[in-house]
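Sat 14:20. Reprocessing the chain from the morning session after the first attempt stalled halfway. Input below, unchanged.
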Amino acid sequence: MIQELLKKLGFTEKQIAIYTAVLEHGRLNYTDLSKKTKLNRTTVYSVAKELLDRGVLQEDLTSPVKALLAAPPEALSVMTTQEEKNLHEKKSLIARTIDEIRSLPSVSHYVAPAITFIPEQRMGQYLREKSDEWNVGLMTSDKTWWGFQDVSFVSKYGDWIDWYWKQAPTDIVLKLFSNDEASEREMRTRTPARREIRYWKSKETFTGTLWVIGDTVITINTRESPFSLVEMRDRNMAQNLRAVFSTLWEK
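Finished this time. Tokens:
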């Protein structure tokens, strides 16, 4: 059971063999560890170093013969912390790379829009899969999610909205127009103030959703089944729509 869990956490077969051997015996020197795992000494030293770097093993330096001890089980949580740090650094690096690529003369000219159609059965998964990419787009523009929203989207995909705002970068804000209905009022009590909704003063009801996220324009139908999402990467259109919504927001 432990072996299967460790495998799912990304441990290799050799790492699992060494780690579980130390867990079982409490303390093992490198010679004994080689015998217990049937791995040669060179491999034991190499794999043990990987586990030491991960923080799940510790080296006992008090003995004349170096030995390995298992760190407290809670040390496994350090792996998640490091992965989160690496992911944050990767996102920042991606944002910087995008800026550098955009500054190149060869890509600074107009690029034809790229359009993706997502049917109802894939929408929930797609919203989660694309969130990090959309965040990068926001971070490299004005960090503001613009547009208008049909309240039926809140009713149908409220779980995704809750999830998104729990993990979204804290400097991203949302400014959407919507209609004053119970589902949206209730959602506002669960999400941060930076998710700002203004109720449309007209009596007309939004029957579709439109988002402007960096260079991406997204339209969503959740009013009538089958639902659908259309994503269009078009820098010029996004820039124009962003200007329209920011002007409306200031009025």
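The domain at 113-250 is CATH 3.30.870.10 (Endonuclease; Chain A).
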